[in-house]
Amino acid sequence: MVDKTEISKPIEIKDNSIERVAFDLMDRIAYLENATGEGYLKPNSREYFLKLYNQCHKVVNRTSVDIDKLLEE
Question: For the whole model, what pTM was predicted?
Fold first, then answer.
């Protein structure tokens, strides 16, 4: 199963928006993974950040997310 994300309008990142919370979560996870030597400096960092933001957005945006399944993606 492939998830597809389409952006149909400009993204507004407000202080309490889902997008802002997902971004802050992504930023924190990336910081901690860098501190422990995991993930952050892999060869394709763009792919890493896009995938991480997508996972964070799913977690923040949905009321019930299977974290184990999400991490397998």
Answer: 0.65
